[in-house]
Specification:
By secondary structure, this protein is α+β, with helices and mostly antiparallel strands. It is globular and about 45 Å long. The two termini are 33 Å apart. It is built from 11 helices and 17 strands. Strands 1-14-9-2-3-4-15 form a 7-stranded mixed sheet. It has a two-stranded antiparallel sheet with strand order 5-8. Helix 1 crosses helix 10, helix 6 crosses helix 7 and helix 7 runs antiparallel to helix 8. Helix content is 35%, strand content 21%.
Length: 356
């Protein structure tokens, strides 16, 4: 297994600002619904056939946290960076295989009124449970492995199992979008305007931006969300702030364009998304996505909050982080019980770099 590149520094500069986001998940589903409902059977079948499904029940069996009656809904959203297929032509680095570069646990409380998204830093050291790989072979449990290496070692079902083991939270659904689909989405809406407060020159990601506002195309958007060198302390914690900043800008652009009023553009967006979309088998069709989206109608997206899993620098390797206790336990307990997340659980001892 190839080890991904390590952060450059463990310096603790300014704390990244917490940003309200997560609405992009709901809006993505809404676009799919409209595209499916507003086109003919052929188009609907085309989009429906694009979606790939993973049978979590078959892969994970009964070795999972119990589903509590008042635990709401929990969805794991992954952004993957496979170097195969359409992604091979993107400037995504030189590491072989595929990894989950972005991971969010979206918690929608019972009653569907408010939601929270928890970002899991990819450099977090975790215990990977025993998993079954796609070829049917077993991958033994391992301690102190990087979170984003789990995907390349055993696929998305193992990532779900790892998150459930570390959190005790039962995940109801899983959604994955790869880099090629992300690029296609941004290009389909004509780019996304982003404002940065300082120059960014990152030879690793290829991003070269002067301070000011820029409309990023799909390739630049990928560079932006992957950039960490040249901002903050150069760690993955700073990159999380970049990702949150871009997702907020993406949301604003989708809302501004009113895709609901443009079936042609909505179809183009939906085609790009579904081609790059992998979900659990419970969501692996436009009909099921539509049903799930309708169940989210009561969520007040203006109050949705994104926070980072509380982490601290590892004592053996300052370029890695581990879950900070008792903050992480407090956070997961609140999600499991559908309770209020205490303010102490939203603060991370490892602060990373500031967003641009």
């Amino acid at each position: 297994m190839t080890t991904p590149e390590a952060p450059d520094s463990s310096r603790p500069p300014k704390a990244p600002r917490r940003r309200r986001t997560g609405r992009w998940v709901m809006l993505t589903l809404a676009v799919l619904v409209v595209a499916g409902a507003g086109t003919g059977y052929w188009m609907y079948s085309q989009l429906d056939g694009n979606i790939k499904g993973v049978d979590l029940d078959k892969s994970l069996g009964d070795d999972r946290p119990a589903k509590l009656p008042t635990s709401g809904q929990n969805v794991l959203v992954l952004g993957s960076d496979s170097r195969a297929g359409a992604n091979a032509g993107l400037d995504t680095g030189h590491v072989a295989g595929a990894r989950s570069d972005t991971a969010l646990v979206i918690h929608i409380p019972e009653g569907r009124k408010q939601a929270v998204a928890v970002s899991i830093p990819r450099d977090t050291l975790v215990t990977r449970p025993e998993c079954v790989k796609d070829d049917g072979t077993k991958l033994p449990s391992a301690n102190r492995v990087m979170f984003n290496s789990v995907y390349s070692a055993a696929g998305p079902a193992c990532v779900v199992k790892t998150v459930e083991k570390m959190s005790g939270v039962r995940l109801d659904h899983f959604v994955e979008i790869d880099f090629a689909g992300f690029k296609g989405l941004v290009d389909a809406i004509g780019g996304v305007p982003v404002t940065v407060d300082r120059d960014i020159h990152d030879s690793s990601s290829g991003l070269d931006l002067a301070a000011g506002t820029h409309r990023l195309d799909g390739t630049q958007a990928l560079q932006f969300v992957r950039t960490r060198h040249g901002i903050g302390d150069g760690s993955d914690l700073g990159r999380i702030g970049m990702q949150q900043k871009f997702l907020m800008a993406l949301l604003a652009e989708i809302k501004k364009q009113d895709l609901m009023g443009s079936p042609t553009k909505a179809y183009a967006v939906a085609d790009d998304l579904t081609t790059a979309l992998t979900t659990d088998s419970g969501l692996a069709s436009l009909t099921r996505l539509a049903e799930f989206s309708r169940s989210m109608n009561g969520v007040d997206t203006s109050t949705m909050e994104t926070i980072m899993l509380p982490v601290q620098y590892d004592t053996q390797d300052p370029n890695r982080v581990v879950a900070a206790e008792p903050q992480a336990k407090q956070l997961w307990t609140a999600l499991r019980s559908d309770g209020t997340i205490p303010e102490s659980a939203k603060k991370s001892p490892a602060r990373g770099g500031a967003t641009p």
